[in-house]
Amino acid sequence: MTSAPLAAVTGAEGFIGSHLTEALVASGHRVRAMAQYNSFSSYGWLETLPSDVLDQVEIVLGDVRDPGSVRGLLDGADCAYHLAALIAIPYSYQAPHSYVDTNVTGTLNVLEAVRALGTPRLVHTSTSETYGTARTVPITEDHPINTQSPYAASKAGGDRLADSYHASFGTPVVTLRPFNTFGPRQSMRAVIPTVIGQVAAGQRTITLGDLRPTRDFTFVEDTARAFLAVGTAAAEQVVGRTFNAGTGGEISVGDLVALIGKVMDAPLDVQEDSARLRPAASEVMRLVADATRLTTATGWRPASTLEEGLARTARWFTDPANLARYKTGIYNI
Hints:
Layout: E1 6-10, H1 15-26, E2 30-36, H2 51-54, E3 57-62, H3 67-74, E4 79-82, H4 89-94, H5 96-117, E5 122-125, H6 150-169, E6 173-178, E7 180-182, H7 191-200, E8 205-208, E9 214-215, E10 217-219, H8 220-232, H9 235-238, E11 242-245, E12 251-252, H10 253-263, E13 269-272, H11 292-298, H12 306-317, H13 320-323
Parallel strand pairs: 1-2, 1-4, 2-3, 4-5, 5-6, 6-11, 7-10, 8-13
Antiparallel strand pairs: 9-12
């Protein structure tokens, strides 16, 4: 009897990582999930997954900045999904060295482990922020890279390493570049949980940064399916390639707030907080994906509309047990 394939996931305790872990188990995988080592032995969002899911998950504490941790995680894996990263753009202005350590050196450690162990496939996570403000829309994978924050620069550095390992050593890496993912369990460092969290906590005056930028928002379950799609597709379709994952639609932050107010049946007054504004030259004003390459290669398409995803996210955040995990009254960077 053939055992289920083993998927190794870095960043599994996080927002997208925990949803990917669920999706992998649902698709018949065993999962070895790395949560960042901490003195509380916390497994992050993995602790909230149903017991029948966790029965198929081996959770290990480690750190992608440590080569030994990474090699132990990947040993024997059929596919590695590398999601571990520092992602908050405002904090990257304060701690750029940390972003390089995690997003560049951490990625190097994963690539080295894949190469040494002969892991059959690595799915590396990029970000639409590497494109910067759109020069042409929708954004294809051939759009120029224009990193407007230390976070974006660190992610682009990891991307370039992944490309170079495929070119130099034949490392079987595929890069997925999600646009703005949202949904249950997301950090308050992102705009949708910031708004929904404030509304769920009873606030009707919402404090935000710039309302003009537009984004392409993808529901987290669709993003998780995109990871699965490139992780399980035939190698000749995906290995050595970069794929956008997005809906092809865009909405401004201001219009997004209005839509959230509609979904949550709450009249909202929005106030701009200068502390939440990015430096002017660092703000990415427009992002909208062209995911044709991903659809052609794997058949992936988003299943949820923005309004459907917002409704599901709002229901999750308005559960008192979930909302209690968040600090809605402060600016989370």
